[in-house]
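Quick question, first post here. What does this chain look like in 3D?
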Amino acid sequence: MPTANPAGRGLLRFLTCGSVDDGKSTLIGRLLYETRVVFDDHIDAVTRASRRHGTTGEDVDLALLVDGLEAEREQGITIDVAYRYFATARRKFIVADTPGHEQYTRNMATGASNSDLAVLLVDARKGVLPQTRRHAYIAHLLGIRQVVVAINKIDLVDFDQARFDAIEADFRRFAEGLRFQAMVVIPLSARYGDNLTERSPRTPWYAGPTLLGHLETVPVDQDLAALPFRMPVQWVNRPNLDFRGLSGTIAGGRVRPGDAVVVAASGQGTTVARIVTADGDRDRADAGEAVTLTFAEEIDASRGDVIAAPDARPEVSDQFAAHVVWMHEAPLYPGRPYLLKAGARTVTATVSEIKHRVDVNSLSHLAAKELHLNEIGFCNLSLSAPIAFDPYEANRETGGFILIDRLSNATLGAGMISFGLRRATNIHWQALDVDKLARAAMKGQKPGILWFTGLSGAGKSTVANLVEKKLLAEGRHTYVLDGDNVRHGLNRDLGFTETDRIENIRRVAETAKLFVDAGLIVLVSFISPFRSERRMARELVEADEFIEVFVDTPIDECRKRDPKGLYAKADAGQIKNFTGIDSPYEPPENPELRIDTTSATPDALASRIVEELRRRGIIG
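> Answer (accepted):
Ran it through. Tokens below.
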């Protein structure tokens, strides 16, 4: 039967991590069993399951106490983060059992982000493996300063002290470059319980603590209430006209009625009038507590703002350097726009530069133009708007962020901010008296972008050229940005890798925006294979100023035409990263215009586009 959980004993959050089949689930199962927090009927169920899925012969497979998913039991692995709660007379615990496979590094990072201590398992037979180093580095990166190296399965090497000493020395050499404040190395047999809750007579050469004894007494690393006050605003609480408060979870420090606070982004100050909770007003609130604050004066703050102590404010910037753990199969490319979510604030962001990639085996810094699944890089990021933040090392809650795909809303990566970048503080917008509307009115038209996209040979340039001729005949003011022509000048330094393609479109989109600001109708004829970059170009101008024209010509027809002989060269391997052959093309999902060059002449299609401009009021 589970024991009672009396309050006031403190809480330790820790995770178990390591390589595949190092015994993480067995270790947690043994802890749950030894601390008597498992119901008898649960033990009976695990006993039955052991006969079907167990890996311990006639013994009960305690790993099955944790591996709750049928897929995990059948494969004998952990494929998701499993959180378990248990308690002893001295402390309460929340443990995250994280998967060992490299493809689930993202799950390990999730577990580490909320943990105070890491138990890093090493199979005594295998020693320190690349995944061991990877997990140790991620634990360090995510702010964990207390580490237990559990050299497990020591029974399978006959409790050999020499083997234990060699593994400990190997790991300590690697960990010299990591800033762990405390590290304890323990020989364990999770299956049989050696040195888990009691000192094992089979390791008389070991004089250190048991695992549970260490977990019960290790000091929790950081007192969040001692940090400067921070409260990210999650919700403006206004149930009626007589009440307005800002709700959120305190990320650092404590607050009392009468304390002075500021909105970090604007610097607007006031004092706290009330601390409101569901259980009534409070005279104090500490880090980790969710509250609603009301103020002596009305302040301009909304979701995503950070309320802070006036004498210890977070940094506010639209550029910073950060470590990024990439968690998606599609690589991270500099210049590609993502959504960045920090606390309750979401802004558009791009990685402006990858400074280096970290080799987790040697901790060396390697040059990189992109980041792939499970890689870790140190990057400069540029945001569409400033956000308030602290270095991750100072406060995990206000120093962490995630990167999100703007189309699928999938989480792509996790980041830890190191410091703000102050490169453009002397640059400000210059006010101009002549604006876009005045320039367009002088030309008798509305400005806009006709963005032609499609495969090489689809007919984009041909149709765009005819559209411009028809517009010129009507006295319209236009300019064509053609993919090949731009690569002779503005973009002549770019190749055809995915990274270069992204930068190619970023530059062209910014140039097209300038033409729109000049009051022109600009025709952009680029393959522009990726939806993300076309969407970025669209978002640079007003909603009615962007018309996507999908020149939807099948690749077989493009191959037949092959006006520049490019498909033949690509098929022969003479051209790499050619769209449609060995580089993808993502067709538009909802273009304003879709034209088929196989069913109408280019001149007829050009006339149709001009009529669409007339219908939209861009030309009269």
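Residues 521 and 607 are 16 Å apart (CA to CA).
The first helix runs from residue 24 to 34.
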